[in-house]
Write a structure and sequence with these properties.
The chain is α+β, with helices and mostly antiparallel strands. It has two domains: 120 residues, Small protein B (Small Protein B, Chain: A), CATH 2.40.280.10; 31 residues. 33% of the residues lie in helices and 36% in strands. The protein has four helices and nine strands, in the order βαβαβββββαββα. Strands 1-8-9-2-7-5-4 form a seven-stranded antiparallel beta sheet. The protein has a two-stranded antiparallel sheet with strand order 3-6. Strand 4 and strand 5 form a beta hairpin.
Length: 157
């Protein structure tokens, strides 16, 4: 994801529940007032995933809250949304997902030069012991940082 992009939403559960093998940036086809709602950060990626159907990729389960000031232009909040990718990229994703245990998960949604983009990850599910190992490693790293800070403070006195 480029530095110039403004992150609107992150799927924190994705990195906790999956090993991200590969990621790709995709555009997203939106209707009505969905862009305005997304700009306000009213999107949830928690239970969403992407699926390849007939040579097209769709974002399923993402919830975009209806725009507050919208009228009949508001659409179904959890509708399937088409992701915009090149044919070559779709074929590559289809090949990767055909492997056992691989799935497409949206990692984040951001604005890049005024356009809404989705970062899609090709992921493999983590086992329970993998999650415990990751948590233990994170705790150990935090404890090490604390110890280093305490040691530096002691030397300054």
């Amino acid at each position: 994801m480029p530095e110039s992009a403004k992150v609107v939403a992150r799927n924190r559960r994705a990195r906790h529940d999956y090993h991200v093998v590969d990621s790709i940036e995709a555009g997203i086809s939106l209707r009505g007032t969905e862009v305005k709602s997304i700009r306000l950060g009213r999107i949830q990626l928690a239970e969403s995933y992407a699926r390849v159907d007939d040579g097209e990729v769709f974002l399923v389960g993402a919830h975009v809250s209806p725009y507050e000031y919208g009228n009949r232009a508001n659409v179904d909040p959890v509708r399937r949304r088409k992701l915009l990718l090149h044919k070559k990229e779709i074929k590559r994703l289809e090949r990767q997902v055909s492997e056992k245990g691989m799935t497409l998960v949206p990692l984040s949604i951001y604005l890049k030069r005024g356009r809404v983009k989705v970062e899609i990850g090709v992921c493999r599910g983590k086992r329970a012991y993998d999650k415990r190992h990751a948590i233990a490693k994170r705790e150990a790293d935090r404890e090490m940082e604390r110890a280093l800070r305490r040691r530096q403070k002691g030397e300054e006195r």
